[in-house]
Specification:
Layout (H helix, E strand, L loop, with lengths): L1 H31 L2 E3 L2 E3 L2 E2 L2 E2 L1 H9 L4 H28 L1
Antiparallel strand pairs: 1-2, 3-4
Helix pairs in contact: 1-2, 1-3
Keywords: Membrane, Transmembrane, Transmembrane helix
Length: 93
């Protein structure tokens, strides 16, 4: 059972990763002083390197959340079900 929880937790993290990356890129763009044009960033320099394209790509990853968030909800439901089964087994002892 413990292994199942660990596997489901890792899968849940992988499902939430596109949103975490998109939020992190959006939060990083502000302090870097990026110019926002439509949905793209320009003039983003980090340690002397232009990271505009990388930040724009990372922010666009939130669209992948349309696929991964329903999977994350299913994983949370499975974790709750496994937790309930484990609790019932302990109460029967």
């Amino acid at each position: 059972m413990r292994l199942a929880f660990i596997v489901l937790a890792v899968l849940l993290l992988l499902c939430l990763l596109p949103l975490i990356v998109a939020l992190g890129a959006g939060l990083l763009a502000g302090p870097l002083g990026c110019d926002t044009i439509a949905a793209a960033f320009r003039n983003c320099t980090l340690l002397g390197a232009d990271v505009s394209d990388a930040l724009t790509t990372a922010v666009a990853l939130h669209w992948l959340g349309l696929l991964t968030l329903p999977c994350a909800a299913l994983i949370v439901a499975l974790m709750a079900l496994l937790g309930a089964v484990q609790l019932l087994r302990r109460l029967r002892r």
